[in-house]
Design brief:
With 192 residues, the chain is mostly helical. The protein is 81% helix and 0% strand. The termini are far apart.
Length: 192
């Protein structure tokens, strides 16, 4: 039994049942150990959940950091499209992470969620810098109307959050149609 096995099974259980409904007994059973053995690795259910959450954020961050790096030489509008398209690319092959992330975003925050919020906010810096650079490059090239770069970066993050919700709630064809329409509108607004 390894810490990695515990985290893997806990991710599935927390994703399927949510923090409140998941039990350490269920997680231990999925790993094939007794519940007290979990305490050798994690002092509490909250600590285990936070470790799973941190691991998910690390994976998410690594994916989007690589996406930002790989798209760095694209023209600004293509770069933004590539970054926004990352939502579908990331979660399409990771339905367990989509379920976990949806529960974490919607149901798991509360008074005790401050550590989780800080973990997530700390992870956004590279992606925020990539969005900001695409915007600044587009303005410098005369392809985008000048405006508030920080406000634009915030807008892209809000759009990404909305794309995630669309992806988890609708069939792929509906998601794709909405994404394409929203992208055309955003591209036109940037050029205005």
């Amino acid at each position: 039994m390894t810490r990695a096995q515990i985290l893997s099974e806990a991710r599935v259980v927390f994703g399927r049942r949510g923090y409140a409904e998941a039990s350490l007994r269920e997680i231990a059973g999925a790993v094939g150990i007794k519940t007290p053995s979990l305490y050798a690795h994690f002092p509490s259910k909250e600590a285990l959940y936070e470790a799973v959450y941190a691991e998910v954020v690390v994976e998410h961050t690594a994916f989007f950091d690589e996406l930002a790096r790989a798209s760095g030489e694209l023209p600004p509008l293509e770069r933004l499209g590539h970054l926004l398209g990352g939502i579908e690319a990331y979660y399409r092959d990771r339905p367990d992470l989509a379920e976990f992330s949806l529960r974490a975003a919607v149901a798991e925050y509360g008074p005790g969620g401050q550590n989780l919020r800080e973990i997530f906010l700390d992870s956004e810096s590279t992606l925020a810098a990539a969005v900001r650079a695409a915007y600044d490059d587009g303005v410098a090239a005369g392809a985008f109307a000048p405006g508030d770069a920080e406000g634009f970066t915030a807008l892209v993050f809000v759009i990404m959050d909305g794309l995630f919700l669309q992806l988890t709630h609708y069939e792929p064809a509906v998601y794709r149609e909405r994404f394409d329409r929203a992208w055309r509108h955003l591209a036109a607004a940037l050029a205005a």
